[in-house]
Amino acid sequence: MGKFLSPEYRAYINSPQWKRGWRRGLTLRLLFGRDCILPIFPAHDADHITYRNLTRELPLRDLVPLNRIVHRQVITPLRDLLRWLLGRKLGNGVLAWFLRGCVLFWWGVIFAIVAQIAALMQS
Asked: Is the pLDDT confidence value at 1 over 70?
């Protein structure tokens, strides 16, 4: 049984330490409370992209902001496909880098928009 199904993991995810903790809170604010795949949706969960650092997670390294529907309809089927094509370990790694890349992409978009606004304000 994997960590995500273990009683210890479930207890941790349902604990006040997790729900009110800075790790989850900061992750949900990474993209101003938006989902990292489709930012038109609000992020409901700080999703674990790796369980290696459970209880010592860091945003972006171990956690990304996700909407529940996007998680269920996009991430779960994508994860299953990658695991089928590449094997469990490599598939999980590719998915983790994809999710990190999504966050960084949207940060780049936000930066470009802010730079354009700043340039317009100076002219």
From this structure: no
